[in-house]
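F.,

This is the one I mentioned.
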């Protein structure tokens, strides 16, 4: 009898919280009363409230935050599955390229609050002090590094440490297969130059990382947008159809933690994609920039892990996880390795030895995995925080992705809210965001934008998100609402 009574009590407490959320008394992001306070107010035991809160956690209604308490989880609808057809082959639109330049200009203005640039800002995101100590030690012990040219293939120590880590992504590479690059962007550019010629057609995810669109235009390539699911990544069925019809000469994809959707392809899709690439002998450039920021336990293997004949070029860097301004990335070129080495030497020779050795030493000490674990937890937490802010301040009908890793969220507004107009309205108030049109060569996604969660969540940042939400709400009002 007593057990049944206790069971009834904790469910009553839990249902009371749910009802408060339904009526709007408690909203997404609100802190629940402490366990002791709730027990006193409801005249029940601490164990009863604790059982109620755990029940609500299991139901996904609230979440516990270490040393902070319990909070209402965001009940933000997720982005619908993509149902777009394959977009016809085209050159990137000029207005898309112009808008990319405008966004970059705003993001570099120190007077602006940036809520969109996917570049972490703040010492909590990088092990700057540890890297600084290693760098200073190297300068003291080997000062001649400053006066010595760095020549290809670059730091052996760093290449060995990178090779040692590749099994975490399902690959088995040697130091000789690693080409150091000036960040991931140089790796992607070198890869495109190695496998394309002007007029070729490149298959891109839709939406895709906007700088890829600029690279396509710069190299005189055409683009074809391929449907990409907000949870499972690119449509392999659509890719297979394009390969059969010989409509694409190369693919450029982000299978793990795609930018801007944050989705990751299932393993079976990765295996199937690699098999298709080998079957049709079409190269793929795999952007693995966020591969180590996956939130789930074991990292998903790269598509390159299933590539038997070397048709996949894997590119990534340490700019998002270790040292942004070091600009050190790497690539593994498979059957295109020799051509890529020559292109790298002609492009920028090699990466600075002192910086590469610093990263190599840091990786040797084993501090990287500890750093990554903390980083993943922080981004997962901040992503939920941001979704709560969107749920609270943006217009009804707004949807957002639930990313599998990284720190960017794709936000889709009601159809009558123009993302470019929202961008300009925010710009007038010194807030920089990235409208959805930038992520499509053909200028799709007019009602979307990308939000970055790689900043310190202080009052300044939160106020910027709130203000953008208010601007979106104003734009979402119909003429009848405004008259009323």
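My design for it:
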């Amino acid at each position: 009898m007593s057990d049944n009574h206790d069971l009834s009590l904790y469910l009553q407490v839990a249902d009371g919280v749910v009802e408060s959320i339904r009526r709007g008394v408690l909203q997404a992001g609100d802190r629940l009363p402490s366990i002791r306070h709730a027990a006193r107010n409801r005249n029940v035991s601490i164990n009863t409230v604790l059982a109620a809160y755990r029940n609500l956690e299991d139901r996904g209604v609230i979440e516990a935050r270490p040393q902070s308490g319990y909070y209402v989880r965001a009940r933000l609808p997720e982005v619908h599955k993509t149902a777009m057809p394959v977009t016809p082959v085209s050159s990137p639109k000029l207005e898309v390229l112009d808008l990319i330049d405008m966004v970059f200009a705003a993001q570099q203005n120190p007077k602006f609050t940036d809520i969109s640039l996917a570049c972490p800002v703040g010492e909590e995101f990088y092990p700057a002090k540890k890297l600084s100590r290693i760098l200073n030690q190297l300068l003291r012990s080997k000062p001649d590094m400053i006066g010595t040219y760095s020549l290809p293939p670059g730091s052996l120590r760093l290449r060995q440490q990178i090779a040692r880590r590749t099994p975490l992504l399902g690959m088995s590479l040697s130091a000789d297969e690693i080409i150091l690059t000036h960040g991931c962007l140089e790796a992607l550019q070198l890869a495109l130059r190695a496998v394309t010629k002007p007029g070729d057609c490149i298959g891109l995810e839709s939406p895709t990382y906007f700088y890829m669109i600029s690279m396509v235009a710069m190299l005189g390539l055409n683009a074809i947008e391929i449907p990409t699911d907000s949870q499972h990544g690119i449509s392999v069925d659509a890719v297979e159809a394009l390969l059969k019809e010989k409509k694409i000469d190369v693919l450029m994809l982000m299978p793990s933690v795609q930018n801007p959707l944050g989705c990751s392809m299932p393993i079976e899709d990765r295996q199937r994609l690699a098999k298709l690439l080998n079957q049709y002998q079409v190269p793929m450039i795999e952007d693995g920039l966020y591969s180590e920021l996956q939130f789930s336990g074991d990292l998903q293997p790269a598509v390159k892990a299933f590539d038997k004949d070397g048709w996949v070029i894997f590119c990534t860097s340490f700019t998002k996880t270790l040292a942004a301004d070091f600009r050190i990335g790497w690539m593994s070129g498979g059957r295109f390795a020799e051509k890529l080495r020559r292109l790298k030497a002609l492009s920028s020779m090699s990466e600075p030895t002192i910086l590469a050795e610093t990263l190599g030493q840091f990786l040797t000490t084993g501090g990287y995995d500890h750093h990554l674990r903390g980083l993943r937890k922080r981004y997962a937490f901040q992503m939920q925080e941001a979704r709560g802010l969107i749920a609270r301040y943006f217009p009804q009908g707004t949807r957002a992705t639930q990313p599998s890793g990284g720190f960017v969220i794709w936000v889709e507004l009601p159809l009558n809210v123009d993302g470019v107009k929202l961008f300009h309205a925010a710009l007038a108030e010194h807030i920089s965001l990235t409208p959805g049109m930038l992520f499509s060569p053909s200028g799709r996604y007019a009602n979307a934008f990308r939000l970055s969660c790689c900043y310190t969540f202080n009052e300044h940042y939160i106020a910027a998100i709130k203000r953008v939400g208010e601007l979106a709400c104003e734009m979402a009002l119909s003429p009848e609402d405004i008259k009323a």
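The two ends are 57 Å apart (CA to CA).

Talk soon.
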